[in-house]
Amino acid sequence: MEEKAGVVFSIAADNAPVPGCTVSKNIYAGGNSITYFSLAKGTDISAEMHPCRKIILVAEGMLELYGTDFETVSLKKEDGILVPENIAVGMKTAEGAVYTEIVIRKEDRMNELVKAGEVFRLADLVPYQEGKIVNMDVAHGEGVKFAVMAFDAGTGLSEHAAPGEAIVFALDGNGIIGYEGKEYPIHAGENFHFAKGGRHSVKADGKFKMALLLTPADI
Fold first, then answer.
1. Contact 29, 69 (CB under 8 A)
2. pTM for this model (two decimals)
3. Domain residues for 144?
4. Which of the residue ranges 38-42, 68-72, 210-214, 215-219 would you say has the lowest mean pLDDT?
5. Would you state the pLDDT for residue 150?
6. Rounded to an integer, what distance in angstroms lies between the CA atom of residue 70 and that of residue 117?
7. Number of domains in the chain
8. Which of 10-18's residues contact partners 24+ apart within 8 Å by CB, and which partners?
9. Residues 80, 55: contact at Cβ < 8 Å?
């Protein structure tokens, strides 16, 4: 995965739009490719049809999705949407936008609570429960696992390692990422990358929600 590991970072800040341009950065080129897009104000990616579904997650700005057979929807910061396959959909923005695109293959399973074409917020998909960690798999397949987790205050995941890589999306509240023997505070809107085999843990600093995007062979 073409992303720095072991530091707190911001997808939005690291991919600020270039005036007058649309920019893409592919960070994972597997079957479930992961790409960052930054669109300057007044720019447009024309409608295209793809044989796969895509999850769009807006990190900054406002994004409008449109198409002849797709009902126009507007997404703001922290909004997401599942774009259906085989329907031409375009993206445009009046003020600028930064977003992540995750390819979901036909054989991958999507949670039935996430409907194609409907705007959602990842943080709203899972509730807090007293003394518990609540987990939901948004998408799951051989090439990707995308999950959302809600940690009550005082809960966490003990140190472990996985054979693949992962990106954390902090969604609500504050957490502490343990990575290779050091602790890193992380706040809503920030990100963290676990490299292959990196020893890591997660603790809630108060209540904390995050999304976790895993690539092979974590699944």
1. no
2. 0.95
3. 123-214
4. 215-219
5. 98
6. 8
7. 2
8. 10/59, 10/189, 10/190, 10/191, 11/36, 11/59, 11/98, 11/100, 11/191, 12/59, 12/60, 12/98, 12/189, 15/59, 15/98, 16/98, 17/41, 17/43, 17/61, 17/96, 17/97, 17/98
9. yes
Q: What is the CATH number of the domain that holds 193?
A: 2.60.120.10
Residues 15 and 117 in one domain: yes
Sequence-separated (6 or more) residues with CB below 8 Å from residue 180: 6, 198, 199, 200
- Residue 217 confidence class, pLDDT cut points 50, 70, 90: low
Same domain, 152 and 198: yes
Residue type, 51: P
Q: Is residue 114 part of a domain?
A: yes
Is residue 219 domain-resident?
no
Give the tens place of pLDDT for each residue, 127-175.
999 999 999 999 999 888 999 999 999 999 999 987 889 999 999 999 9
Question: Is 209 inside any structural domain?
Answer: yes
pLDDT surpasses 70 at 218:
no
Specify the residue for token string 């999306």: 169
Cα distance between residue 151 and residue 136, in whole Å: 12
DSSP at 123: G
